[in-house]
Amino acid sequence: MHVRGTVAGEVDVRSVSTSYGESELAEVPLRPADDAPDGGTTIARGDGGTATLADGRETTTVTLWNKWTESADLLEPGMELLVTNAKAEEYQGETQYATTGDSYVVVEPSFLVSVTSIRNWVECPRLYYLNKLSGVPLNYPVVKGTLVHEVFGDLLRGRDLEDSIAARVEERGLQLGLLGETADAVAEDVRENATAIEGWLQQGRLDEAEDGWRSEQLLISETFGIRGRADAVRRGAPVELKTGKNLKKEPRFKDKVQAACYALLLEEHGGDVDIGTLLYTKNSVLDRNEETGDLNPAKEFTMGEGLLKYVVRLRNEIAAMEMAGEVPTGYEADAKCEYCFEQDTCMVVSGRLDQESKAGQIGQSLPDAEREYFDRFYRAIEEERREVHREYAKLWEQTAEERADDDRALIDLEFLEQRPLEGGRWELRARRPGGANSKLREGDLVLASDGDPVRGDSELARIERLDDEIVLTADEPVEVTRLDVYPSELTTDRLLVAMHDFLLKGDERRKDVLFGRAEPAFDEIDEVFIDNNDAQNEAVQKAVGAEDFALIHGPPGTGKTYTIARAIRAMVERGERVLLSAFTNRAVDNALEALLEQLEDVIDEDRVVRVGSESGVSDEMEPYRLERAGEPDDRVAELEEAQVVAATTSTCGSRVMKEQSFDAALVDEAGQLTEPGTCAAINLAERFVLVGDHEQLPPVVRAENDLTESLFERLVERYPDAGVMLDRQYRMNQRIQVFASTEFYDGQLRPATPEVAGRTLDDLEGVSRDVLPDTLSDPVSFVDVEGDRSQYTDGEEAARIADLIERYEDAGLDRSEIGVIAPFRAQVSEISSRVPDDVTVDTVDRFQGSSQEVIIVSFTATGSLEGPIFEDYRRINVALTRPKRALVLVGDAAALASDPVYERMLEWARA
Ligand SMILES: Nc1ncnc2c1ncn2[C@@H]1O[C@H](COP(=O)(O)OP(=O)(O)OP(=O)(O)O)[C@@H](O)[C@H]1O
C-alpha cells in the first residue's frame, strides 16, 4: 500500500539494535492526505488496497528505515511525503506504517524534478543551480550535441544517415552562423559521432529483426515526481546518447544516474527495467593506435534496485531544497571544483550574490537593494514554477471529463489517421465533437495521447490546424483521441535567466535608474513628428530623446500602435538599430504592420526582420520572418544586418536573440508583462520605451506575488515625468467612452475628432438604427435579466443575447461585426452554442487589444458578484472599451448595484 500525507511535526532520527545489527530509523508524524471520495481520510492507496483511519484528522507515524533516513533528514513540518509499498503495523493499539524492502520514499511528490536536474545535481548541486539561473548558452558543443541527438532519432525512425545529417545541419543554419561555423565542417563533425551510432544500430538490427525501438519519449512520473525525455527506449529499457568518449568498461556514474531516472519513469509506465545503455558517440572515431581501453560505443549496465533508490534520494534532496527556498553551496555532494568548467561562473555568482560556495567567491557583492530584489523575484519565479507543476499534477488528479470542463483538454476525439512526413515526423488527424471548447489554439504545443496522457501513449505535438478536424505534427505516431494543455516551464526558466542577466550582467547606469539611485535623463527634441495629436507627438519626442527609458501610457484606441511605429521610424532615420517587442505574437505583428507603412521610403524591406516560429507569425508578416534553416553565413547576415528586429518578449529570451544587441527596444503591451519578462527584451538594448496601459489586463501569472505588477506600472508610478499619456481616442462614440474615462483615466480620455465622438451604427453601410427596438437605439444600453442563478453559466442571459444578435442582424449588421464578452469559459460555451458561428464570443482576456462595432457583455451574475470579470476592475475596463458604435450590457441589475463601481456603471448605462 502507498502512504501519503503531510509531515505533522518534528522527525525523530535514531539508531536501534535489531536482530540484523545496528539500524537507522526515522519516525515521521504524518497527517494523512485528505482525498477519500467518501469524505473520510484515506492514507493508503494503491494496488495494495485502501486503509482509512477511524478518525480522519488524526496523525499517524510512518517509520522510514536505513538509507531512507537520509530523506527523512530533509523533512520539515508541512512537507508532503509519499511512501510506496509500506506495511501497516499495530503498535499499542494504533495502526502505524513502515517502509519495506520494496518501498520508495518520495519527498514532495508533486514537485516535478527534471532528469537533467538530477544529473546536474549528482555532479554538483551548485551546477544544477547555475544552470537554472543562467540557462544554457549558445555554444558549439551544445548545438553539436543537439544535432547528434536529432540524427540519432532520425536513424531510429529509419532515415538515411546522410539525408539526416544534411537536413539537420541545414535546419540549424542560423545558430551555426552565429557561432561562425560552416555547414561542411559541422556535417563532418556530426558524421564522426553519428557513424558510431549507426554501426552499433546495425549490429543490433542484425541480431533481431524486431528490436522494439522508439525514439525520444516524454515521460512523467506522478509517484516519483520526475519528468524527462528519454533519448530512446529499446525493448522497454532506456538508451542515452552521450557526445563524448568513455574508454572504461562501465558508463560514467552521472550517466548511469540519468539512465536510472528514465528506468524509474518507464517502470511507472508499466515496464520492468533491468538494464540501461549508454552510447558514447566518440568512441569509434578514436585512433585505435593511440588509445587503449574499451572502444565499444555502447555500454550496458544492470539497473540495480540500490541505484534506483539512490536516484530517488537525490531527487528528494532537490525537492526539499526547493521547497525550503534554499540555494545549494556545493558542499551537499562531493563536488570537485578544481576540475569544473563552471568554477569561474560559480565564484562570480556566489561573490555577487553573497552565497556560500565550495568554489569560493570573487567580485563585489551587489548592493543590498539589488540582493533583496534578486531574492524576492527568485522566490516569486520559483512559486510560479510550482504552480506550473500543479498544472502537471492535474493531468492525473483530474478525470478526463474534469479537464475538459476546465477547458484544459479536448477529449473523446475520433482518431482519423497517422501519416509519416518527410524527415521522419508524423502527421496525426482526429475529429473533434462539435462545440467542444478549450484553451488550446493553433500553434500550441500539446500532449497528444491515446486517452491517457500520463500512463498511456502520449507525445508532444504541435497543433497545425484546429477546426472540426484537428491536424497535429509529432515525432512519433499516436492514435490520438485526447489533447491536453502542456504546462511548459520554458517561460519560467526564461524569467529567471532574464532576471539574472539584468542584475548580474546588466548595465550599471540602467540599474541606478531602475533602483531609484538616479533619475532618467532625456535629450530635448524639438522636431514635430505628429502634427494632429499633441500627446502622441510628445510621446515620440520622449521616446527618441530618452537616454534611459520613456513610458507611453496608451488607454484604449489612443493610437499606441501608430505612435510606436512613428517613434521607431524616427529612430531608424537617426541610424539606430531597434528591437520591437510585445507580449503576444499578435501585438508584435500589429505593430510591425503599422511600422512597415511608416518605413516604406526609409529603409529597404529586407532590413526588417520578424523572428518567430511559423505558427506564431501571422500570414501577412510571414514574408519578413527570419528563416532559421539555410546556409549559416546567409542566415546570420539577414539577422545581423537588419535594422529593425521584431519578436515576442519570450523569443527575446531565446539563445539566438540573446546574442543580439540594439540601440533601443520598444515594448508594447508592457502592462501585461512581468518585470523579469520585460527584462528579457530590454536587456538587449541600451535604451527602452515601454508602451502599455496598467488600467487594462495585468501580467498573466499563476501565482499571486511580485510578478503581478509590471515594470511599466512600477515605473509609471515612480517616474511620472518619464511618461506621457495618450489622451485622444480614435475608437469609441462619446457616450461609450465616458464611463471608462471617468472611472479609470481621471476624466482625461476624449474622442480624437468630432467624427469619432459622433459615430453610430447609422454610419455603417446598409445599417439603420430605426429598425432596432427603442431600448437599443442609444450607443449604450442595459438589458436587465434576472438570470437563472447558476454559478458559471446563465442560460437566460445567453438566450437574451441570441435574441439581441437577431435584432442587430435585422438592422443590417454583419454578424462578424458583433462581439460577445463573458466572464467564464462555461458561459462562453453556453452563448456560443446559441449564436451563429461568425459572432465572436470569448472571455475578456481574448478580447484585449481588439475592437468591434457592437459589443455585448454578459455579466453572468445573479444575486452576488463573483468571478474573474468582477474581481479586478481592469477587466471591466477592457470589456467596456472594445466597441466603436454600440455597447449592450446584459445582467442582473440588483446584483450589479451591490458594488459601487458597477452601480455607477448602471447609472451611466441607463442614463
Ligand atoms: N494621430 C493620428 N491621426 C489620425 N489617425 C490616428 C492617429 N493616431 C491613431 N490613429 C488611428 O486610430 C486608430 C487606432 O490607432 P491604433 O491602432 O494605433 O490604436 P491603439 O491604441 O494601438 O489601439 P488598441 O487600444 O486597440 O491597442 C487607427 O485607425 C489609427 O490609424
From TrEMBL:
It comes from the Archaea. It is an enzyme of class 3 (hydrolase). Keywords: 4Fe-4S, ATP-binding, DNA damage, DNA repair, DNA replication, DNA-binding, Helicase, Hydrolase, Iron, Iron-sulfur, Metal-binding, Multifunctional enzyme, Nuclease, Nucleotide-binding. Residues 533-628, 639-702 form the DNA2/NAM7 helicase helicase domain. CDD domains: SF1_C_Upf1 (cd18808). This is DNA helicase. It holds the Pfam family AAA_12. GO terms for biological process: DNA repair; DNA replication. Residues 708-893 form the DNA2/NAM7 helicase-like C-terminal domain. Residues 56-212 form the DNA replication factor Dna2 N-terminal domain. It catalyses: ATP + H2O = ADP + phosphate + H(+). InterPro entries: Coronavir_polyprotein_1ab, DNA2/NAM7-like_C, DNA2/NAM7_AAA_11, DNA_replication_fac_Dna2_N, NA-bd_OB-fold, P-loop_NTPase, PDDEXK-like_dom_sf, SF1_C_Upf1. Residues 15-54 are annotated as: Disordered. Its cofactor is [4Fe-4S] cluster. Its EC number is 3.6.4.12. Belongs to the DNA2/NAM7 helicase family. GO terms for molecular function: 4 iron, 4 sulfur cluster binding; 5'-3' DNA helicase activity; ATP binding; DNA binding; hydrolase activity; metal ion binding; nuclease activity. The keyword Transmembrane helix does not apply.
